[in-house]
What does this fold into?
Amino acid sequence: MMTSATCRSLGFPSGFRCLGIRLAVAAAIVLPLGVIGAHAEDMKVTIDNFTFAPAELKVKVGDTVTWTNHDDIPHTVVSAGKFRSKTMDTDNDFSFTFTTAGDYKYFCSLHPHMTGMIKVE
Ligand SMILES: [Cu+2]
It folds into this structure.
């Protein structure tokens, strides 16, 4: 616990104000972490019948998208230079956490006509 003498030496006029500042500093450290933790979501894209659903998905920075392959043939999820899944067999999934805003076009490298888009804002 900081004493008022310590506060005065730091230029604060009273112990009360010093405590208030300490609480504000503590809140400033804790609150952003809480907001980020509460806000991050796990979004899902399914692969069914050679189609990504939804084909276009809007997420927020910090969200994680999980693709799950429901077809009985393998697929991949590839966004050039951004992310690349391994080959997913039936019911396998792949997750990627988006930390930068932007439009991420992706496709299946085994069936390049299969395309999708993640919009990160
Ligand atoms: Cu495929």
Q: What stands out?
A: The longest strand covers residues 111-120.
